[in-house]
């Protein structure tokens, strides 16, 4: 219970800040007033943005300490998914877990996570928040209000969900069955060494590289078009640029890979591509005719996730 008493309210609430939906209104008078406005880029302005998008959309089992601007006296960890797809959990030791992949959400994932954190700060140890709903009253905050904006996430990927169960928890047939069901659907996933927010994923029939990029879509598409026109878009022999999906305001390019190669073998090709991409992003001026054609072709390989 001591941990509960020592928890503090996050700092940084600013009801006069502009709404991230782009309406031009103050957040409190727009989305903060309860309107279900869709914030297309909920984690904008955070160095952790690519990490949060990856955790939300395709990483199966991962944890990261949440870099709060004003750290609490209990650890706060963000997780890909919690038991029951809960929004938050408070363990018996007072530590807090926030879930990225939840059952329901509002139009602003950033506000949902901040809401779940606020709930956890006053919740009893051993409790869980199934969903973030309108019952959580009070001034609306967002992750941008409570995080160190310059800090990326220090992600740890796991090959199963064993971390769901605290070490001192008692075994039971129900817990064992739940873990077995969750572990059976995990797709093997590994971070690509030396490349930020790039992940090797084995879907069972194919292997992919999925890479969350922080640039604006226009800038990234222009750079990819330049590389495509120059024949430099692939990662090497046996690879194919499959397309890209939009997720929470960012573009995630995807490559098909040779499934027979180990995940670590893609580090050097990905790092070499990263160098080429940085050079293409630094180029200015209009696209050539061939590059415009390449951009149009790449645009046909994009989908948007919600």
Automatic annotation (TrEMBL):
Q: Which Pfam families match?
A: DUF5926 (PF19348), SEC-C (PF02810)
The region called Disordered is annotated at 1-23
DUF5926 domain boundaries: 42-306
The record's section on InterPro entries has: DUF5926, SEC_C_motif
Q: Which domain of life is it from?
A: Bacteria
Report the protein name in the record: DUF5926 family protein
Give the source species.
Answer: Pseudonocardia xishanensis
